[in-house]
Design goal:
The chain has 367 residues and is of the alpha+beta class. The chain has helices at residues 14-22, 30-65, 73-110, 128-136, 138-163, 166-172, 177-218, 222-234, 236-257, 294-305, 314-323, 335-342, 362-366, and strands spanning 2-3, 6-7, 263-267, 271-276, 286-292, 309-312. Helix 2 runs antiparallel to helix 3 (73-110) and helix 9 runs parallel beside helix 10 (294-305). The protein is elongated, with a radius of gyration of 40 Å.
Length: 367
């Protein structure tokens, strides 16, 4: 499958799927809806057929069997209206059941999809050339061939099912009326069951084919993928949503990693750098997490909540924020300034200049 942009070699993106759905391009099988309606109707007739026949018989007797003498046209009209009203009490629920079956089959395929823009008139569909291409196009011929094949297959199923009861059919002619009715009902039920099973199988295959074809139509060329990526970069809604997600991830990271720090350096309310130093296992202090603006405020808040010391040192904070990535070790030229803050903390008071564990140990700075 190719177009002007090249081969469709890329699977559809979520945005591509959503755009197609908003345009009404979804995978659906009309055969599956029709089969669902037929099955629901057959089940309803099987469950309600006998009570429905008895009710119709009673209505006929009540409407026409007890009328003395000839019936005038006005009386016939009144009796017909009464009969239709009584029938409506039975047929309307039955029709409602069929409608519900169609609705469920439709929603199961595509879900709830409200597209008011599809109600607007499309002048392109009124173009005779478009209609001619739609009627005489290859896709329409393929659909016609498929429908013909389905019809032939269904007729074969009916013939096979009827042929399976040829002995019963031969015995009907010599049977009594009750036996004839019973045999006919049995044959009809068997043929109907086989036909519905064949319809269900064909509808399932048609739905699988529609899904596969819809999926292939959504695949993208290199050009389409590049254009969508560019649109996503420009779209302010997508950009804002992406920024919100990134900010949420960063805030979670700050709340998770700041408690591991031993010192928080701040530059007013604009920058914050959280440091960790374990003399026994680290060769130099490490930047646990850093941030600016709202992230800096969150680092300071979490540090205060966890009882972590914070120190105001604008020049050092800005330098570390600029030079050291998250998780990176401090460069040796910053050791003296860092040590000056660390030795003020109770757990680092033993780290005096010249001590083997101090980050300003001459051996550490020269080696």
């Amino acid at each position: 499958m190719t177009d002007a942009g090249g081969d469709r070699i890329h699977p559809p993106t979520p945005r591509r799927r959503e755009q197609a759905r908003q345009q009404g391009q979804v995978a659906r099988s009309r055969d599956l809806v029709a089969c669902s309606v037929l099955i629901a109707g057959a089940v309803a007739v099987w469950l309600l057929g006998e009570p429905l026949l008895r009710m119709m018989e009673q209505l006929a007797v009540q409407s026409f069997g007890l009328v003395p003498g000839p019936v005038s046209p006005d009386q016939a009209a009144v009796m017909g209206q009464h009969l239709l009203a009584r029938l409506a009490t039975v047929l309307i629920p039955l029709l409602g059941l069929l409608f519900l079956a169609a609705l469920i089959a439709h929603l199961a395929q595509i879900g709830f999809l409200f597209l008011p823009n599809r109600l607007a008139p499309d002048m392109e569909r009124l173009d005779p050339r478009t209609g001619a291409r739609r009627i005489f196009g290859a896709e329409n011929w393929l659909r016609t061939a498929g429908s013909t094949a389905k019809l032939v297959l269904l007729l074969g199923v009916v013939a096979w099912s009827v042929g399976a009861h040829h002995e019963m059919l031969l015995g009907i002619a010599a049977g009594e009326p009750p036996m004839i009715a019973q045999s006919a009902a049995r044959i009809f039920g068997s043929v109907t069951s086989a036909l519905l099973l064949a319809l269900l199988l064909l509808a399932s295959l048609d739905y699988a084919w529609q899904r596969w074809r819809h999926e292939r139509r959504l695949w993208m060329t290199d050009q389409e993928l590049r254009e969508q990526w560019r649109d996503e970069q420009v779209d302010p809604h997508i950009h804002r949503r992406r920024s919100q997600l990134q900010q949420h991830v960063i805030m979670q990271q700050i709340n998770r990693e700041t408690p591991q720090a031993h010192l928080v350096l701040i530059a007013g309310t604009s920058l914050a750098v959280a440091l960790r130093y374990e003399p026994a296992s680290m060769s130099a202090p490490q930047v646990v997490v850093k941030g600016a603006g709202q992230q800096a405020a969150e680092i300071y808040r979490v540090g205060q909540q966890q009882g972590i010391a914070s120190v105001e040192d604008g020049p050092l904070t800005r330098e570390l924020y600029r030079r050291v990535p998250r998780g990176g070790e401090l460069p040796p030229d910053t050791f003296p300034a860092i040590a000056a803050h660390l030795i003020e903390l109770p757990r680092f008071q033993r780290l005096r200049p010249g001590s083997p564990e101090s980050p300003v140990n001459p051996a550490a700075t020269t080696g």
